[in-house]
Amino acid sequence: MRRYGKNPDEDDIRVRPNPKGNRPRTHTRPKHEDAQEGMVLTVDRGRLTCLVDGRTVMAMKARELGRKAAVVGDQVSLVGDLSGDKDTLARIVRIGRRTSVLRRTADDDDPYERVVVANADQLAIVTALADPEPRPRMIDRCLVAAYDGGLSPLLVLTKSDLASPDELLEAYTPLGVPYVVTSREELENGDAAEGVRALLDGKVTAFVGHSGVGKTTLVNALVAKDRRRTTGVVNAVTGRGRHTTTSALALPLGDDRGWVVDTPGVRSFGLHHVDPSRVINAFPDLQPGAENCPRGCTHDSRETECALDAWVAEGHADPARLDSLRRLLATRERREGD
Ligand SMILES: Nc1nc2c(ncn2[C@@H]2O[C@H](COP(=O)(O)OP(=O)(O)OP(=O)(O)O)[C@@H](O)[C@H]2O)c(=O)[nH]1
Ligand SMILES: [Zn+2]
Asked: In this protein, which residues make up the domain named CP-type G (predicted)?
């Protein structure tokens, strides 16, 4: 029975990334010695499409896994019929330890966090420079979700034919976030795909973006025609006439050059679950300064004893970095329009 959450294809169990890698969460059971490894490409009403040894295999979670869900990007062990033939169904008996988790909560007051994508290296935050207007607060919230979950952020600024990226880029300079700028013309002549692909090479990159920013146009420019969402793996496998899932979908970049994970259902992040200390880990120049903070310090400018002020005053880090960190942490309080 399911009590929480709107999308049964997301994992709503509290998990923490385990950067030290010292506490594996699952164990290989001897009885599944014959299991094969695979990667979850998409999830649709409890049916998981997995890539196993180059084949697309449909699978279900084994009962022994309990409540823990496998999500897109998970490395899983499968048993049963792994032929990938029509009407076959394998069983997922193990979910591998995750190197990163893109999480969201449905609302900031929802204590249950959902993992939407596992093991992505990067989070590409797609923002139009105009039409629709960029929303820096939204970008900041995405950055917090990325830092918190162990993903490296990447800014993809589209529609530079309509407005200049300069002002926006200025705000993100202190964060040192890699970025790429694309325009209508560059989409048409292939330069946009080439420029973005250079940043995706060999990596698993989750793409997020609000409706209308040009995410679909871009993803389609990156991914081979026969693998796109509209006609892609899901329909080929399930035989369903249309794509009904709200799950993320992993699409190969070709020649083993990485994966794009399109996330149609993720347009904003609840940041209820975010632990400021995990965000500070993404700021190695500030992180040592926070060691002198009082327990539970939120590091915002209202904290009179936050040690980061002294850290910056003593010249250990650029004040603009602390301002950026505080701006990001402040986005944890949800406002209208987030
Ligand atoms: N001027 C201009 N328009 C663009 C550019 N990229 C995409 N568009 C247009 O922006 C509109 C929205 O693009 P989509 O790719 O559908 O946007 P999306 O983010 O996927 O939005 P949803 O499909 O609603 O999720 C389309 O009319 C595109 O042709 C660009 O670089 N410049
Ligand atoms: Zn502090």
From this structure: 99-269
Does residue 143 sit within a domain?
yes
Residue 16 CB coordination number (10 Å): 16
* 3-state secondary structure string across 284-325: CCCHHHHHHCCCCCCCCCCCCCCCHHHHHHCCCCCHHHHHHH
10 lies in some domain: no
Whether the CB of 216 sits within 6 Å of ligand 1? yes
Take atom 6 of ligand 1 and give the residue whose Cα is closest: 214
- Distance from Cα 113 to the centre of ligand 2, integer Å: 25
Is residue 126 situated within a structural domain?
yes
CB-based contacts of 305, cutoff 8 Å, min separation 6: 293, 294, 297
ipTM reported for the complex, 2 dp: 0.96
Report how many domains make up the chain.
Answer: 2
Pairing of strands 249-252, 258-262: antiparallel
Cα–Cα distance for residue pair 143/137, rounded to 1 Å: 10
Binding-site residue ranges for Zn(2+): 293, 297, 299, 306
Tell me how far apart the alpha carbons of residues 323 and 318 are, in angstroms, rounded to a whole number.
Answer: 9
Which stretch of 25-39, 207-221, 309-323 has the lowest confidence by average pLDDT? 25-39
Give per-residue pLDDT as tens, 246-305. 789 999 998 889 999 999 867 677 787 788 888 998 999 999 999 999 998 989 888 899
* Strand-strand pairing, 258-262 and 203-209: parallel
SS3 39: strand
Question: 238 and 150 in one domain?
Answer: yes
Ligand nearest to the CA of 326: 2
Is residue 151 located within the same domain as residue 214? yes
The range of the structural domain enclosing residue 294 comes to: 276-330
3-class state of residue 160 by DSSP: coil
Measured CA to CA, the distance from residue 1 to residue 20 in angstroms comes to 34
